Amino acid sequence: MITPKGLKNQENDRIDLLQIYPLRMYNSFMATGTAPTAPLTPAVFAILLSLADGEKHGYLIMKDARAPQGGGIRLGPGTLYGSLERMMRDGLVEESGISDDERRRYYRLTQQGHSVLAVELERLDAAVSSARSHGLLAHGGHS
Amino acid sequence: MMPAALSTETLERIYAQALRLYPARFRAAHGASMRQTFRDALRDRSLSRRALIPLVLRDLVTSLAKEHFAMLRDTFLRPALLFNTVVLAGISTVLAVALYTIPQQVLRQGANDPQIQMATDLTTFLDRYGVTGGLNQGALLQSGGVVDIAHSLSPFLIVYNDQGQPLGSNAQLNGQTPAPPIGVFEYTRVHGEERISWQPVLGREHGVRIAAVVQRVNGPQPGFVLAGRNMREVEAREQQIEQMAGLAWIAMLGLILLGTAAFGWYSRPKTA
């Protein structure tokens, strides 16, 4: 996985406990767990898209993802929270800290999450433009 | 009764039980939220239970596998842990190689000791009288009877002329006096002495390996003296050392594996 320039990897901070080798090889070997880059998995893309217009709790994200304009992804709670955990670890989303119920947590995009979503949307937009130019998709139609 | 016909409370209770199948850390971090999300889905009239229940069942199966795999990866396959394991495995491999190589070399070099003394004594004698003259004076008579190279562990002597042809010997293999490859004589001619592990071939392979010391005879009738000894016992000891070093290596790798697994489990991430 490749991290966009300037984005820090939080995972590296946790492994300093075992960093006893002052080697460049060790440091490069440790450079894992960075934020995903395009193309994103359908679940990650749907979650990012859902949170793009504001913070939401789990079921609202599931509902957005299920809608055709949200990706048409049928997310279950396990996949949703597994993805959210990894996205939080990668610095794409964070808990907002605001909750109307102790069990209902709200999530929002981080700056990095916005960047990754923008890159993915540009990639998809380019693909759709290419499909249109090849006559595979009607001009002005739904993409 | 079909799951879709069960009451909301019953379905929630079943789902709460199913959540116990997730890894403890994941369950502690997200269990309550997942249960709330499931409750929200059950109460959403825009989503039929006939659609929801299969979706949740499929999700349970796939996400359970994924989260357990992620738990194993986060516990045992962390880069820092793997790096240390690879380093320790490398150190243990070097140690095991040293455990084999050092005693093997000591044994192999020690196997030359009587031959060095015998070859030096005979070479000194033949330097004075020449290879033919020395043999005529009974240079090999004091070394006892004929040694069967294939079976005896006794050291033996062979004298060759300057072209590498055997002139005299107190040893035989398949009724003949063996000679090492001509390259051995060429090396000895230049450097004065050569120490080799030699597997004579006379007609057929017989697996006899010889610890041989070849020395150059100078003087009026130059030639070569070869003192040798069957390496059977030395090679048996080398094989024992190889087995012990191999067992030590496997034991060290096993300990490293156990230690890595224990440390991985002890230091696993406890919170999401």
Low-confidence stretches of chain A: 1-18
> Span between N and C termini of chain B?
37 Å
Averaged pLDDT of chain B: 89
Tally of strands of chain A: 3
Radius of gyration of chain A: 18 Å
Strand order of the largest sheet of chain B: 3-2-7-6-5
Largest interface: A-B, 34 and 36 residues
Number of individual domains of chain B: 3
Total count of strands of chain B: 7
The level 1 CATH classification of the domain at 36-133 in chain A is Mainly Alpha
CATH fold-level assignment of the domain at 36-133 in chain A: Arc Repressor Mutant, subunit A
In spatial order, strands of the major sheet of chain A run: 1-3-2
Textual characterization of the structure:
The complex is a heterodimer of chains A (143) and B (272). By secondary structure, chain A is mainly alpha-helical. Chain A has a domain at 36-133: Arc Repressor Mutant, subunit A, CATH 1.10.10. In chain A, 46% of the residues lie in helices and 6% in strands. Chain A has 6 helices and 3 strands. Chain A has helices at 11-14, 24-30, 42-51, 58-66, 77-89, 111-133; strands spanning 56-57, 93-95, 106-109. Chain B is an alpha+beta fold and 272 residues long. Chain B has 3 domains: 3-72, no CATH class; 77-110 and 232-272; 112-230, 2-Layer Sandwich (Beta-Lactamase). In chain B, 58% of the residues lie in helices and 13% in strands. Chain B has 8 helices and 7 strands; from the N terminus they run H-H-H-H-H-H-E-E-E-E-H-E-E-E-H. In chain B, strand 2 (156-161) and strand 3 (166-169) form a beta hairpin. In chain B, helix 4 (79-110) packs antiparallel against helix 8 (232-266). The radius of gyration of chain B is 38 Å and the shape is rod-shaped. Chain B starts with 7 loop residues before the first helix and ends in a 6-residue tail after the last helix. Chain A binds chain B through residues 14-15, 17-19, 21, 26, 29-30, 32, 57-59, 62-63, 66, 74-82, 84-86, 88, 101-105, and chain B through 22, 26, 29-30, 32-38, 40-41, 44, 47, 55-56, 58-60, 62-64, 66-67, 70, 78-81, 83-84, 87, 267, 269, 272.
